[in-house]
Design a protein that fits this description.
Strand content of chain A: 25-35%
Order of helices and strands of chain B: EHEHEHHEHEEHEHHHEHEHHH
Order of helices and strands of chain A: EHEEHHEHEEEEEEEH
Radius of gyration of chain B: 18 Å
CATH class of chain A: Alpha Beta
Shape of chain A: globular
Distance between the termini of chain B: 39 Å
Structural class of chain B: alpha/beta
Strand content of chain B: 5-15%
CATH superfamily of chain A: Class I glutamine amidotransferase (GATase) domain
Largest interface: A-B, 37 and 41 residues
Strand order of the largest sheet of chain B: 8-7-6-5-4-3-2-9
Number of strands of chain A: 11
Helix content of chain B: 40-55%
Number of helices of chain A: 5
CATH architecture of chain A: 3-Layer(aba) Sandwich
Oligomer: heterodimer
Chain lengths: ~180, ~290
């Protein structure tokens, strides 16, 4: 299994480390042609405005849209979740609306304990860094974890988004759930 | 249960900035240009380092009103500088909600002996270093991100290269030392023993390390990335050049595609004049910023 991690900017190395720990191959993606042969794609945390601009400059928007249309799974964390969310400016691949920096500035960044619907026995330590909030989710969106009554982990078909950073805390459950979406 | 201001949150924000460019700006218009070009963060300043160097006098924390206006004008994180050891300037920036504080040698030091105890703050700090010992001392004081100092305001990348290579060499040397030599290595580096052990084991710094001080072109930025920087700060290099918006965008692209010479060639074309550079040997010892605080 080969996972591409969008490496335009942000915490792409951490995702690569996590996927490798889960037994998958993982590689950096910077150009559209590098997407082929990838069984899954992750869009990491970073600054969504910077990633978006680099995506558009190098033709990755169309490449990602046709990749998603092929049904292969895409994981987006934090900035990645924003980029996958519902908006003409973004990729518009999952029916959730995100609000950037909705908790406030860096001093409002927080660690919190959440419960994953597919693994409720053990709490998950979620790290929210200048995180977005999902303030609306469509009826086809499956909410898999919430914090303060807002979805923080959600799936619609082949798209999985987290508003926090599972790549930073070493807990492999979300990455291995994503790998299960492939098979 | 929620926790705020923890080390993972502080170092985590730096992780999110990786592979990106942090740009010095002095007003909201420049901040907007930086954000539109793809900067991951801006450093809010009254004067860019080249002007601080030219004008002389005591360089202090920027007027909070300027910082606030910049914070209001962009959605990306905003950093601001405090003088080395000036913990009250840091308290002010923390109360304003600045996202990262740079305890910076570019400003005139407020304390000749001690840096700020950065563990006392919820806001994260980035600090400069010219070698591994200095880098680890800053981490011991609670910094959550590092940058090599280079020589700010010169447009000359040679010091940035020297500092990055020095740190790389020192890490390489530590990583081959037998366990029993690490205490003496810590003594010689003047660095906390536990951090020396960590670096020897992992063969890398425990936090994100950007390059700063003298980067003026896309090629400079890519050079620092190939030498192992996690990202770059560009100070005077953008807004002291002829066409800031184009240069800013080119440097952003160069940092992402730092290993792709075809793209580097393309983005380096017709950017207009770079900032005028300074030969380091033309500076007297008293003009060097990198020796402040160590």
């Amino acid at each position: 299994m080969k996972i591409g991690v969008l490496a335009l900017q942000g915490a792409f190395r951490e995702h690569i480390v996590m996927f490798k720990r889960c037994g998958a191959l993982a590689t950096e993606i910077r150009l559209p042609e590098e997407l082929k042969d990838m069984d899954g794609l992750a869009i990491p945390g970073g600054e969504s405005s910077a990633i978006l601009r680099l995506m558009d400059l190098y033709g990755l928007r169309d490449a990602l849209l046709s990749y998603a249309a092929s049904g292969k799974p895409i994981l987006g964390t934090c900035a990645g979740a924003i980029l996958l969310s519902r908006s003409q400016n973004y990729l518009n691949l999952i029916d959730v609306r995100t609000v950037r920096n909705a908790y406030g500035r860096q001093i409002d960044s927080r660690e919190a304990v959440i419960e994953l619907s597919f693994s409720p026995d053990e709490p998950f330590r979620a790290v929210f860094i200048r995180a977005p909030v999902i303030d609306e989710a469509g009826k086809d969106v499956h909410v898999m974890a919430s914090y303060r009554d807002k979805p923080v982990l959600a799936r619609q078909n082949n798209i999985l988004v987290a508003t926090f950073h599972p790549e930073l805390t070493g807990d492999e459950r979300i990455h291995s759930y994503f790998l299960d979406m492939i098979s | 249960m929620e926790k705020f201001g923890t080390l993972p949150l502080k170092t985590g924000l730096a992780e999110m900035l990786k592979g990106g460019v942090i740009m010095d700006v002095t007003n909201p218009e420049q901040a907007k240009i930086a954000e539109d070009a793809g900067a991951v963060s801006v450093m809010a300043l009254e004067r860019v380092p080249a002007d601080i160097r030219a004008q002389g006098g005591v360089a202090r924390m920027t007027d909070p009103e300027i910082i606030e206006k910049i914070m209001e004008s962009v959605s990306i994180p905003v950093m601001a500088k405090v003088r080395i050891g000036h913990f009250v300037e840091a308290q002010i920036l923390e109360s304003m909600g600045v996202d990262y504080i740079d305890e910076s040698e570019v400003l005139t030091p407020a304390d000749e002996s001690y840096h700020i105890n950065k563990w006392n703050f919820k806001v994260p700090f980035v600090c400069g270093a010219v070698n591994l010992g200095e880098a680890l001392r800053r981490l011991g004081e609670g910094a959550a991100m590092l940058r090599t100092k280079g020589e700010a305001g010169t447009g000359n990348v040679v010091e940035a290269v020297r500092h990055m290579r020095t740190i790389n060499d020192e890490i390489a040397r530590l990583s081959v030392l037998p366990e029993e030599e690490l205490m003496t290595a810590a003594k010689n580096l003047g660095a906390p023993y536990e951090l020396v052990r960590l670096v020897a084991r992992d063969r890398k710094l425990p936090v994100v390390n950007f390059s700063a001080g003298g980067i003026a072109t896309p090629a400079d930025a890519a050079l620092m990335m190939q030498l192992g920087a996690d990202g770059v700060f560009v100070g005077s290099g953008i807004f002291k050049s002829k066409e800031p918006a184009r240069r800013a965008s080119a440097i952003v692209q160069a940092v992402t595609h730092y290993n792709n010479p075809d793209i580097l060639a393309k983005v380096s074309k017709s950017l207009g004049d770079a900032m005028p550079g300074l030969e380091i040997s033309s500076l007297g010892e008293k003009d060097l910023l990198q020796v402040r605080g160590n």
